[in-house]
Amino acid sequence: MKGLLSRLAQVTVILLILTSTVVFSKETPVSVLVNVEVQTDALTSSQLRKIFSMRQTVWPDGQPIIVFVLKTESAAHQALCKDVLKMFPYQIERLWNKLAYSGLGDKPTELSNQKEMLEKLQQTPGAIGYMLNINSGNKIKKIEVVGE
Amino acid sequence: MKLKVILLTLICFLNVALSFNANASDQFNWRGFVAQGVIQAQNSNYIDDDGDATLKLTEVGINASYTLDTNFRVAGQIVYLNGGNRYPEGLRVDYLFLDWRAINSLDWQVNMHLGRVKNYHWIYSSTRDVPHTRPTIILPQSIYFDAFRDVALGVDGVAIVANTANALGEWEFNWSYGNSPISEEQTKNLIAVTASGDIEQKFVHQGNLVWHNQALRFSAGLLDSKFKYVSGDQDAFIDGDAQIQRLMLHGTYDAKHWQLAFELFRERSIYEDLIFPGFINDSTSEGGYIQGRYFINKDITATARLDIFDLDRKDRSGEKRAALSGGTVPAYFGFQDQFTLGASWTFSENWQLQAEFHRVKGTGRLAPVFLPNTIQNDHKYWNIWGIQLAHWF
């Protein structure tokens, strides 16, 4: 066991070095958008990970967070995972499955396209979602992503 | 305890539900899964006594959750399982609990669960019966010992799940306390087929702390549990006690196209009386696995895993135990090393086909635990293969 632990420690150090050098682009075509009535204007990547992985379920003012997502294969979802959440799409899908089948939480609502996403964000109080190449619009606002 | 906790949860649920007039359809979610496979464990009683190919690989579940308000929800799941000798066949309440979101801020999330709660402490423990959430049909037996499944699945009691983040990374803390009901069949799995008494789990107390960033995840955890055996009529065993204390470590590394995972444990087991007054057996087992997964494309994943288990760290070859038994228990009952190759294919949305092969050396993780079945498990080397179709919704 000691030998195995020592090997694991070595692998861990190597992996830590590898992961600490990963650089994510700050320029991203995806915008995190919320219903205009949401009082929050900026969130960190860590807070967004908690929201999109369904662990954080209310806004600071107590309003429930309603999470909308697009299909995993969509360019917007891929960009959200890579540039904003800094996760691989399979990681967040695995988290949703763990929540949904162990009672810890519920999966977000999946929408079929950006048009539907825009409508849901405009119509649903407390809604959060994301779209490509859209920074503002009627009844929606962009969330500023501020660091980790 | 079991009925009390379930009733308490239901009463809480009904009380709070009746006080709300909100549109239930917006707050109610339900999901499920169904899976059927073919499996064979040649030269062992792991699946079936005769070692032939069998359809005893059925997993069906349906779950629902009801959000009462921003702080309270109720979640439950019923499953039907048939795994042959791996665990008792039938319908069971997998989990049913009241979920109180005690702290729900942007920086801290703390939930308390009351009722029948899942084991959130190991990598796959909370969804071990849900085919599309696990890497292989058969999980590594060093950690996910099937004969111990119902005991390890969760507890009737209370759990706390906490999440936060700071400059060092993201942190999770899981804690649980309670006990699990142990059926007659499970009692025979754990002790011996001749045991006619009842095992009562007095308590199981478990906690683990997890650190993770976006790629790496590490956890350290402790478990302490006590059991009591009350002998039955014309029982080969007498009243006795057992205590199990476990240290567990696990870690994962996620890359774009592959994933590494490991879990390790050291477990001290103390048995008192049980065979004759004054009998004491105090031994420490060790084990763990390392697993690699390669995502060939978005639909196909290949898995390779080496899993190692030693029943007694001071007798890794099992020779001392074999000698103590006068040769009736072969040395290969002292360990179980298992190499697995598998693949899963998501061939359509929410449909998955999973297939795998296991080469096994030793029989240390075959039931019954205390008094092994040396007649049916008469091979040091044996194989398992399985294929399973799963659909979830």
From TrEMBL, chain B:
Keywords associated with the record: Signal
Signal peptide from the UniProt entry: 1-24
Protein name, per record: Phosphate-selective porin O and P
